[in-house]
């Protein structure tokens, strides 16, 4: 129903909410609620080009634009701006399918020294004015995709959602498909995403982009979002004081011809991932490093992260976790196992970076410096460590801290500490034996509970020597194994034949026992208790 507005003589016919007769009379649609794209001629039948009708509905600026169930074909990007709201009936019901590789002709916009290019091939573009942001944009209940299938259109440098500068963005129940990048923002803050997915794309999500001019962002709350079937990466998260909750990444890095760069790239200050994970994926699992463009190091918290069928880093890469350039990563809880890929290592920490691990389960021995590699002042701190074998589930480490003390529970083969010199790579192993003594062994790992020496007595040797007498020999040699001439040595006869010692001496190899007269002949008749120390 329309009504005649005699006071309006200038408004243009938009085909939906305002019509102009041949005589110039203006008729306004009477409605309460959302603007329906079908008022403007959109068909949503999967056959006709609905680009113009959808754009006219948005440009009418009369509130929420509603897209009823249907497949809406478009031949050019749909442009949204500040205050727009685009709502459908759900990603499986309301589908916007761009059928061409046609790019927008919107030119560039500037923000301080950054220049944003809007001449891109995208399904939806959030267009900002010069020196400003898109604000209060809402998108809900739609699917936006390029082509009917992943290979229908060449991906090139294309996007499903493209928004270089935006804040107060909300998206809910939205799915993106078949582009080079599914979801893309550069300078973004106060963003809320809920149940948004990016599938069958080269790159899943870019939440802020420090590699672009003026990139980055803050204050994101991202819940139950998913990147699936992505070749290069699932999540590039370049924002600070933000939370990503129960987000996933599945089937990542599946194309050997286009190997993945990472699964999660995490760059920001006070950035937290909680209850996130990945399944059926290849590539660097967590990549954390600094932000040169703003002169900050990243500080990232990852809580309760889980992997299932994670196959480790891609060919040519080594580490599942990478922390670099004065950045800091804290891993708390969760289970991060690497399936296959015996050459993969757990983590690299380099260039003054720090890694803190607390209560993380994995099938890799990340207390072993062959698995967690620190270089160029990198540091790692581990507590509550739990490493388990996929074959038998055996826990290999259990350490924890309480009341300011550090407690390590274990034995010579479960709970020892290994210290390695960073230059020579010489190692020593430290553990508590069954009697409660602290023991140390240099070189290879211990083979029994009594291996090595009790700490404080590593320069002490003692034992029992049993030798035979032939009736003519008056000097006997007992090897002490210290490698140098001891400062103290003592020999006590422990058999009748061994009595009568005249004096005792020592050199770098032996304690030397001298008799004034040769003891009488006796097989194994000479028994001494001896001790030597440096």
Account of the protein in words:
- Mean pLDDT is 91; it is low at 388-405.
- The strands form 8 sheets. This protein has a 28-stranded parallel beta sheet that branches. A 4-stranded antiparallel beta sheet has the order 38-39-40-41, with no helix packed on it.
- It is mainly β and 534 residues long.
- The chain is built from 1 helix and 47 strands.
- The chain has 4 domains: 1-30, no CATH class; 35-375, Pectate Lyase C-like; 417-454, no CATH class; 460-533.
Q: Structural class given helices, strands, pairing?
A: mainly beta
- Helix percentage range: under 10%
Number of strands: 47
Low-confidence region ranges: 388-405
From the alpha-carbon coordinates, what is the Rg to the nearest angstrom? 36 Å
Shape: rod-shaped
Query: What is the strand content?
Result: over 45%
Oligomer class: single chain
Distance, first to last CA? 105 Å
User: What is the CATH first-level class name of the largest domain?
Assistant: Mainly Beta
Give the tally of structural domains.
Answer: 4
CATH topology of the largest domain: Pectate Lyase C-like
Summed over residues and divided by their number, the pLDDT gives a mean of: 91
Profile the largest sheet.
28 strands, parallel
Count of separate DSSP helical elements: 1
Assign the CATH architecture of the largest domain.
3 Solenoid
Structural key phrases:
single chain, 534 residues, mainly beta, Pectate Lyase C-like, 28-stranded parallel β-sheet, four-stranded antiparallel β-sheet, 1 helix
């Amino acid at each position: 129903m329309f009504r005649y507005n005699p006071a309006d003589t200038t408004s243009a016919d938009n085909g939906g909410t305002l019509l102009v007769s041949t005589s110039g009379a203006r008729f306004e649609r009477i409605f309460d609620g959302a603007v329906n794209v079908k008022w403007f001629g959109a068909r949503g039948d999967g056959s006709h080009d609905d680009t113009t009708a959808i754009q006219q509905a948005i440009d009418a600026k009369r509130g929420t634009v509603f897209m009823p169930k249907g497949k809406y074909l478009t031949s050019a990007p749909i442009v949204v701006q500040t205050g727009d709201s685009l709502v459908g009936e759900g990603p499986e019901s309301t589908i916007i399918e761009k059928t061409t590789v046609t790019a927008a002709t919107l030119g560039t916009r500037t923000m301080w020294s950054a220049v944003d290019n809007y001449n891109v091939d995208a399904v939806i573009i959030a267009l900002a004015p010069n020196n400003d942001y898109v604000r209060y944009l809402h998108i809900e209940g739609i699917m936006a995709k390029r082509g009917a299938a992943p290979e229908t259109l060449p991906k090139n440098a294309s996007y499903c959602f493209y928004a270089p500068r935006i804040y107060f963005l909300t998206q809910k129940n939205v799915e993106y498909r078949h582009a080079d990048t599914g979801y893309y923002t550069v300078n973004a803050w106060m963003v809320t995403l809920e149940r948004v997915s990016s599938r069958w794309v080269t790159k899943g999500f870019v939440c802020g982009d420090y590699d672009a001019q003026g990139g980055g962002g803050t204050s994101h709350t991202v819940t139950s979002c998913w990147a699936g079937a992505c070749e290069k990466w699932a999540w590039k998260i370049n924002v600070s004081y933000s939370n990503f909750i129960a987000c996933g990444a599945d089937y990542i890095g599946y194309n050997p011809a286009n190997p993945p760069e990472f699964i999660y790239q995490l760059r920001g200050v006070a950035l937290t991932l909680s209850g996130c994970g990945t399944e059926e994926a290849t590539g660097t699992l967590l990549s954390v490093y600094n932000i040169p463009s703003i002169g900050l190091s990243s500080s990232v918290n990852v809580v309760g992260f889980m992997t299932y069928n994670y196959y480790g880093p891609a060919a040519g890469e080594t580490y599942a976790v990478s922390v670099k350039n004065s950045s800091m990563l804290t891993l708390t809880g969760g289970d991060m196992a690497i399936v296959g890929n015996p050459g993969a290592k757990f983590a690299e920490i380099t260039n003054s970076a720090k890694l803190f691990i607390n209560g993380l389960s994995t099938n890799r021995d990340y207390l072993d410096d062959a698995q967690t590699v620190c270089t160029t002042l990198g540091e790692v701190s581990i507590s509550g460590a739990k490493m388990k074998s996929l074959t038998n589930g055996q826990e290999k480490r259990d350490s924890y801290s309480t009341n300011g003390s550090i407690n390590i529970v274990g034995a010579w083969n479960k709970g020892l500490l290994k210290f390695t010199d960073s230059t020579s790579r010489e190692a020593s192993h430290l553990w508590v034996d069954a009697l409660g003594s602290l023991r140390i062994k240099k070189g290879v790992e211990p083979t029994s509970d009594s291996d090595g020496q009790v700490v404080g007595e590593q320069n002490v040797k003692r034992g029992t020597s049993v030798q035979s007498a032939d009736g003519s020999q008056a000097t006997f040699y007992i090897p002490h194994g210290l490698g140098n001439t001891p400062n103290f040595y003592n020999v006590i006869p422990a058999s009748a034949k061994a009595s009568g010692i005249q004096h005792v001496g020592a050199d770098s190899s032996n304690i030397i026992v001298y008799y004034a007269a040769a003891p009488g002949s006796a097989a194994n008749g000479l028994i001494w208790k001896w001790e030597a120390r440096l």
